[in-house]
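Limitations
The structure tokens in this dataset are predictions for the assembled complex, not deposited experimental models. Users should treat interface geometry with appropriate caution, especially where small molecules or nucleic acid strands are included. An illustrative entry is reproduced here so readers can see what is and is not provided.
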Amino acid sequence: MSQEHDDIHAQMAALADGTLPASRRDSLLARIESSPTLVAELERQRDSVAVLRSLEDVQAPPALRRSVQALVDRAPARRRGVALRWRLVGAGALALAGVLAFVLALTARTTGQPTVVQAARLALEPATLASPTELPGNRDVLAGSVEGIAYPYWQRDFGWRAAGARVDRLGGRTVTTVFYTHANATHATPARIGYAIVAGRALALPGGTVSTVHGIRFHTLASAGATIVTWRRSGHTCVLAARGVPAPTLVRLAAWE
Amino acid sequence: MSALDPQSLPRHAGRLYRAAWALCGSPEDAQDLVQETFARVLAKPRLLRGQDELAYLMRVLRNTFLTQRRTASRRPQLSGATLDQLEPVDPRTADRPEEAAQTREVFATIASLSEDHRLALVAVDVVGLSYREAARVLGTREATIATRVFRARERMARELDREQAGEDRDPRGSLAQRGNP
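Predicted assembly:
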């Protein structure tokens, strides 16, 4: 389909639902009238708009309305400063989190249990394998998973493309990492994120700064010049680790569903 | 930047329900999706960052839909529908089976569109967002949304015409006539 066709079709969509500016209407109508194909297409656009507008009579069932009202009645009161929690995921908080992470890493080393920080360090290592492929027709996840936990497809929504992977053993666990690079990354300013999933039971949470998104708690901390975000998916530990990528970006990616 | 007022949200329930039905293709799944959407939105106070509350709700609905579908794809699939699932639930048409059948057919046709086309059509034609608002919600360009809406309507019209022709050939058919604008 040519760009010209796309442009005409985009305008025809607006013409059919009445949102095309009047200044473009006459010239578009003249163009349409010169082509029986376009006339038929416009007719089908209008048919569909009419059918879709007839759906406006469909109302939510009473049971659904009652349950929505019950949710509204239980909702927390409005207040200012709701974004404050997000803003706390900043440099100052990360400094404190880094100290905590260091202490936790030391503690874990003495007990022999793998830690989130150790898993994160693997996620900062170079890739040794090809990344999972994209799934045809599925723009949500890649064709790679660990015990049912799939790696996300971030390219469309965020511009982060899967670019390599590695598999390591850590304290008897398998840690599988998929690396993502950003479309705007350069050799001078490389931007890479390691997304590690630890097989088996979830690891102990490391503390750090906690932010809650969609009911999931994301722990953000700093270690060895890197930013780490960890959370649990279906009882598994997931870790994002990166250098030079802001913590809020990592939390937003982690929270994307 | 303004705070979302929970008390103003119930007025959008009908619109979200229609959008959810069009996305899921099932009125029962639509109820679950709308309920989950409101539960997420109302779990804590929210700020609207330069968008109106309907656009915000559409964004959460879309994210919840994609999450639920991804989760469902990991679960074992049940075969067949239960009797409950086949009960008409649209109160407008519960006592008018032909109209109910037509409504279900239209929603099913939308649900059969590709994901990109379906989301664009639902955002613009079912929820009523402008092309610009829909582009923001769906994270793409306004021109792309307009082209997707065009193709979605084109496909929908052809599908409904095909089904209409099939019903006309079948004397047991019950599809009601659709009006022209």
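Some entries come with short summary sentences. For this one: Chain A is about 40% helix and 30% strand.
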